[in-house]
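Researcher: I'd like a structural prediction for the single chain below. Treat it as a standalone chain; there are no partners to consider.
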Amino acid sequence: MIHLRDLHKRYRDEGGVNHVLRGVSLDIAEGEFVALMGTSGSGKSTLLNVIGALDQDYEGQVKVDGSVLQGLDDTTLSRFRNRTVSFVFQQFHLLPHLPVLDNVLVPSWFAGPGDEAARRARGMALLERVGLGAMAVKRPGHLSGGEKQRVAIARALFNRPKLLLADEPTGALDTASGQRVMALFGELNREEGVTVVIVTHDPEVAARCDRVIRIRDGRIESEEGGA
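Model: Treating it as a single chain, here is the predicted structure.
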């Protein structure tokens, strides 16, 4: 599913060049449930952005679901992001003026004309899946942090992605809400075969994953679990 070879990422700023990723080589198979761990600034979120094609400015090879990402035109990249990969972030990114169901339907805005009734039915089914069917008509402001994150997960699943990338998805949640979110990720991985890659600094979150990859100063320091 994910194939990285000799990946380097550099940022240029007033202080010079910041070498964030330093020769990362990594394989993640389809259906894996993986945690990326490391201190702030270690490069783990940058790595996630490269895998998800949000960042195209790097050196090395990045192949996801059989596609070499670097050099793809905007149309092909948009299709990749819409059909193959979805993101879940720490800060939910819900639209406060829209009801919960309409937030889940946001990915359908980029899919062109379609059966609106079928789309809304899928959105409701996803809300039921994450335990929030009763909240469909409420605005996000009426939801707890854990509920907002579950709405964000339902939205991420709308287009049936093969790969789910989550950047500190429990970082803004209390312990109980974080555990529920992680249980949902595990369920999606086991029952639907979604490949899940989670960036976290929390050992309890990492313990729920099948494989833990530790990153230090832009390099893979160690790996635990996996085949």
